[in-house]
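Honest question from a wet-lab person: if I give you the sequences of every part of a complex, can you actually get the arrangement of the whole thing, not just the pieces? Trying it with mine:
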Amino acid sequence: MIEAHELSKVFSDKKRGDVRAADSISFRCEPGQIYGLLGANGAGKTTTLRMLATILSPTSGTASVAGFDVVREPAQVRAHIGFLSTATALYDRLTAAETVEYFGQLYGLDSATIARRTSEIFKTLDMEEFRDRRCAKLSTGMKQKVSIARTLIHDPPVMIFDEPTNGLDVMAARSITDFIRQCRDRGKTVIFSTHVMTEVEKLCDRIGIIHGGRLRTEGTLDDLRKRYAKSNLEEIFVEASGDGR
Amino acid sequence: MNLRNALIVFRKELRDMLRDKRTIRSMVIIPMVAFPMLFVVIGWAQEKFSGEAEKEVSLVMVYGGEDSPKVVQALRDFPGIQIVPYKTDARQEVSDKTIRALVEIPAGFDASSGSSPANASIDYYDSDTRSELAKEKLQKFFDDYRVHIAREALIARGLPTRLLEPFTVDAKNVAPPAKVGAAIFGGLIPYLIIIFCFTGAMYPAMDLTAGEKERGTMETILTSPVARTDLVMGKFLTVVVASVTTAVLSLLSLGITFALTKRGMFGGAGSTRQISIDPAALVGVVVMLLPIAILFASVLLSVALFAKSYREAQTYVSPLIFIVIAPAIIGTLPGIELNWKTALVPILNTSLVSKEIIAGNHPWTLMAAVFAMTCVYATIGIVAAVRMFNREDVLFRV
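Yes, you can. This is the full assembly:
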């Protein structure tokens, strides 16, 4: 479960002064649901997700992730989430297996659990062939699989994806969207940000449209269609981004 | 701090670092291969070129001496000197280095010998090794010739020639080899170790901070439950290990190279100078250098973390080497002593205390003070590094 309450983040910028990257964002995402945060570049998606992952601390407001408060219990929050984005790269000089083992250790798992989980995940994702190959030598698709394995090693109840398909080819992007769907099917709470309308339409149970740091509207796709009297998500997005209804 | 997590990060960073060619190059290859090569090449070049100059027969012109055939003939017979016909621009030829020296023999030189002193002169070119060697040979010739004339005069008067040498002097070295070594290397070794400590820490510090930001792995690790203090400590331990390893390997490598090329480096084959360094003193120096390695690691991590990329980190870190070199050089200067004031100056204090240890002196109170002060500075450095890792504007600087 994720519950964001009036989450705000203000950055100080020498040229622009105080920049409100996220402004009083509130929403709720249930287990077994995919919540899509839809917004243009610079809308505040990454800032919001980074606050949920406790990489950034909110200027005001708070959020509860898997029952832990992001301000008061950041380590507990991080221990119960899997965070994946195209910005979260892999260590080039570690092998796929070493990478997953390293994160397993940091999540506090014992060696036997790490070995068992790694074996399961590597089988499921068909990674056995390149388990001892260094990440620098892997293809983009293989790297994506290692990143997924890294986020799954501790079997987190909450998954956070920040534009996970950005810059990926069709096949690699498809494997990610399949993976997101599987997470929901296993009962995990899933939030993911994107600016790709089709991904939202295909995957999301609830959608939040974010623009200028503010959550302009949210609901199921049907809710939004009724609210804006439009069937096309792109048109809904444009209108919601513009009028703030 | 969670020691378990810090050690997990440390083990991973160490493994990662040992697979990084740049770090291996600066930590192992340069100290173990480049320095010995450098010394061997310098030794070889020195031996080759100075050896050639010493073997050369010096071309000399003689002005005058027409009425003094004895001295001219003796000069002609002197080994290592060849007299060439005199030209009017003889001085210019010395300047042009076509001949090595010009000897002027005053009129009546042979006749005046033994009575009123005659004044011969040598024109040579200072700073030209070959000309200086010719001057030395000519001076030796005239010294020998002076003794020869005096001996003949004594014999002619029926006096004993031992009057020429009423006494002899023997010089004996009482300094033990370790003290001679301390005098020669006392300043150099701490200076080198301080520089090696710094350069050994430079590359891993940049790679583990700015390098991680550039490659996108910093965000990955920040999403794990590891606390930022544990993350800093893991990285920091890695940089300290790299720093100390570089310094120790460099020292070891220099020691081996020195032992192997000692004869060539100190006075040639004929040198009987005994030089050694007390190994216990070296261990003492390494102990004193631990806190400075910690200080360097923490400062470098803090500074390099501020950069967005490895390249940018290099522009921040490179100027720091001058801040390190300045006190390290001052520490090697004669007259700069370890006292309660210099004990407070970071880097300089370590340089001076290391000099004292190598010289066999143990001012325990000052040593403890230097160690404690450097530990204080190192702690400030670690606190600064932890703070930097907790600053969002530094970690996510755009």
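Two things worth pointing out. Residues 2-80+158-243 of chain A form a domain with the Rossmann fold fold (CATH 3.40.50.300). Strands of chain A lie at 2-13, 17-29, 34-39, 60-65, 68-69, 81-85, 158-162, 189-194, 206-211, 214-219.
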